[in-house]
Amino acid sequence: MKRFILPLMLTLVAGTATAGTWSLDSCLNYAIDHNLNVRSAEINRLGGELQVTEAKDAFLPNLSASASQGWDFGRGLTSSNTYANRNTSSFSWGARMSLPIFQGLRNIRQLRYSKSNLSLLEQQTEATRDEVRLSVITSYLQVLFNKEILAVSREQLRLSNVQLERQRALLEGGKVPEVDVIQAEAQVARNEVQVVNSENDLRTSFIELAKVLELDNIDDFDVEEIDDETMALLNAEEVYNNALANYPALRAARQNIKVAEDAVTLAKSGYLPTLSFNAGLGSSYYTVSGDKSKSFGSQMRDNFSKNIGFSLSVPIFDAFSTRNQVRQAKVRKQTAQIQLEQQQSELHKAIRLAYQQALGAEKKYQAGKTSVKAAKAALDAMTEKYTYGKANATEWEQTQSDYITTLAEQVQAKYELILRNRVLQFYNRK
Predict the structure, then answer these.
(1) Which of 46, 173, 256, 377 shows the greatest Cβ crowding within 10 Å of its Cβ?
(2) Distance, CA of 199 to CA of 61 (rounded, Å)
(3) Nearest-5° angle of CA 29, CA 33, CA 35?
């Protein structure tokens, strides 16, 4: 029953997944279950499990059976050493078993290699999940950033519309020239274009997030706000030390070295001899036209045979095949070691960069709070002066632009801080 219920539940979840507002955790969980890269890594891991099973099966004996039936027509040699025209038929059967006793430790080493490779695939699968998690976090925060930028653009348009209405009222009262109204209308038009651009950016960020989640329909798709502004900034070196021990990508790189070491050992098995035990049995039936032949059962009993034996193979010269395989395996090990060092270096750089960017964003965000208040106060003052004819349209538009720019910079600093803190938290696993 479970085999039918589980797929049905997954289908229902997939069918209703895009409805409503998603939290960051729900996005992360859904992506881990549905992202194609994760699913591909899972399939590779299953392939590794099959390789382990195959390596275990190599210890089992081989058993085979055979049967043959043949006919000969025309002249043939007789028992009296003369040739005569005759037809003959023959039937034979046999069974054979071969048991590996010593295969140069290849089977043992192959099993060890397969288990190491399975562990590597498991680590790579977890590393793939991590990549997807980071992509989800980045895309999720980009959506929230674009939503706030859209709100800023709409606020700018609202202010421009308010100012346009004021200018129209002043024009009717003969207090401002018509050119001021035209300038205000042009400003509204520019702000409307900016709103459209911001809406497109938001829609694009939703598409990018849906791509990571493997969602097809995002018509009713939305995300929840997160409050990470008070998140404490982590120490870069502590984060790096924790990542060295626990980051899946680094664990996979270390396991890759172990796999390469086992590959070297496996290749060296070609230098050792192999020994196997063989056993077989069989019988045959033979008839000649014109001659009286014994019955089938009688011949089967009389011709029944059994055999056992041992087979020893000692490698002497294999055109340097084993030597070359060992050398290639050693090269792969050196490559794996270099890849580990590169990943450690890149990780350290990424953590330090995220820390410095978080520091800068935090300072910019705190300073931006004061800047936004000051820019808003300046805009209110300039609006009043503009309303009473003490300032022109250019001065008001510049003050409005400064206020909107300050708001946008504040939003950018906020989400830069949140993203970098999230990145540091992401690497700071224990």
Answers:
(1) 256
(2) 68
(3) 105
pLDDT at 288: 79
Query: Is the pLDDT at 32 greater than 80, yes or no?
Result: yes
Cβ contacts of 197 within 8 Å, gap of 6 or more: 153
Give the span between the Cα atoms of 172 and 159, in whole angstroms. 20
At 25 the pLDDT is: 92
Listed residue (288, 295, 296) closest to 76, CA to CA: 288
Integer Cα distance of 117 and 258 in angstroms? 9
SS (H, E, C) the chain: CHHHHHHHHHHHHHHHCCCCEECHHHHHHHHHHHCHHHHHHHHHHHHHHHHHHHHHHCCCCEEEEEEEEEEECCEEECCCCCEEECCEEEEEEEEEEEEEEECCCHHHHHHHHHHHHHHHHHHHHHHHHHHHHHHHHHHHHHHHHHHHHHHHHHHHHHHHHHHHHHHHHHHHCCCCCHHHHHHHHHHHHHHHHHHHHHHHHHHHHHHHHHHHHCCCCCCCCEECCCCCCCCCCCCHHHHHHHHHHHCHHHHHHHHHHHHHHHHHHHHHHHHCCEEEEEEEEEEEEEEECCCCCCCHHHHHHHCCEEEEEEEEECCCCCCCHHHHHHHHHHHHHHHHHHHHHHHHHHHHHHHHHHHHHHHHHHHHHHHHHHHHHHHHHHHHHHHHHHHCCCCCHHHHHHHHHHHHHHHHHHHHHHHHHHHHHHHHHHHCCC
The pTM of this model reads 0.80
CA dist., res. 192 & res. 156, Å (int): 9
CA separation for the pair 271, 255 (Å, rounded)? 26
Q: What pLDDT, in 10s, does the model give residues 206-217? A: 999 999 999 888
Compute the distance between CA of residue 211 and CA of residue 138 in angstroms, rounded to an integer. 13
Nearest-angstrom CA–CA distance, 133 and 122: 17
The mean pLDDT value of the chain amounts to 88
Burial annotation 328-349 (CB, 10 A radius, 16+ → b, else e):
ebeebbeebeeebeebbeebbe
**Which of 6-10, 264-268, 359-363 shows the lowest per-residue confidence on average (mean pLDDT)?**
6-10
